[in-house]
């Protein structure tokens, strides 16, 4: 038996369906939204509706944009010969925060996951191959997560890119800056040793 009105239960369920939001957090968010002045609540709802209507994928890199192409693809300052392949749009923000990378991106919108029935046709691999064939791409950096699915996706794409004579690299793995060796797991230490660089 529910203690809340049906419409409030529906709102809680919608918040609870978001990633990382549990039932208690969903209830807090729902009660907060109900406590907002009507104009703020409507502005919140409008922001969701507007974003859903106007945000779509860049026709080049598949990153999120409101225009035909995103700001990175449109920029003359970016190195178009390098493409960094990431799983999700939020990964672009993570790499951009470092302010070191000056190439372009390609967003897959997922990774290969046979357990979840996600195959090559379910993510944006074809669009990457079109770019590799048409553009003057010299290097593709695979920046998918270092988990089983991310590794499998990186290996699969690197095999597809072989015929294009493009250099395919993988992000280095290793010990995080500021941490201690004693806290690193065996796999991380092994990757760090394999990916060592000359000083």
Describe the structure.
By secondary structure, the protein is an alpha/beta fold. It folds into two domains: 6-54, RecR Domain 1 (Helicase, Ruva Protein, domain 3), CATH 1.10.8.420; 57-180 and 187-191, Dna Topoisomerase Vi A Subunit, Chain: A, domain 2, CATH 3.40.1360. Helix content is 44%, strand content 13%. The protein has eight helices and six strands; from the N terminus they run αααββαβαβαβαβα. The chain is globular, with a radius of gyration of 21 Å.
Low-confidence stretches: none
Rg calc? 21 Å
* Strand runs, count: 6
Mean pLDDT: 89
Task: Tell me what portion of residues adopts beta-strand conformation.
Answer: 5-15%
State the order of secondary-structure elements, H for helix, E for strand: HHHEEHEHEHEHEH
Query: What is the CATH C-level name of the largest domain?
Result: Alpha Beta
The percent range for helix content is 40-55%
**Secondary-structure-derived class:** alpha/beta
Quickly count the domains.
2
Morphology call: globular
Corresponding CATH architecture of the largest domain = 3-Layer(aba) Sandwich
């Amino acid at each position: 038996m529910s203690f809340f009105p049906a419409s409030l239960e529906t709102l809680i369920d919608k918040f609870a369906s978001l990633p990382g939001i549990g039932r208690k957090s969903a209830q807090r968010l729902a009660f907060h939204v109900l406590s907002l002045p009507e104009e703020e609540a409507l502005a919140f709802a409008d922001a969701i509706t507007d974003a859903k209507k106007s945000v779509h994928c860049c026709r080049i890199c598949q990153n999120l944009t409101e225009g035909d192409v995103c700001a990175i693809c449109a920029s003359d300052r970016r190195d178009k010969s390098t493409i960094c392949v990431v799983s999700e749009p939020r990964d672009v923000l993570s790499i951009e925060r470092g302010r070191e990378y000056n190439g372009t991106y390609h967003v897959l919108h997922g990774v290969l996951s046979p357990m979840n029935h996600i195959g090559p046709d379910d993510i944006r691999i074809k669009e990457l191959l079109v770019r590799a064939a048409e553009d003057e791409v010299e290097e593709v950096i695979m920046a998918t997560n270092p988990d089983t699915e991310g590794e499998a996706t990186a290996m699969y794409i690197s095999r597809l890119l072989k015929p294009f004579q493009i250099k395919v690299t993988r992000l280095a793995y290793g010990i995080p800056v500021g941490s201690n060796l004693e806290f690193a797991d065996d796999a991380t230490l092994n990757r760090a040793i394999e990916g060592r660089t000359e000083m």
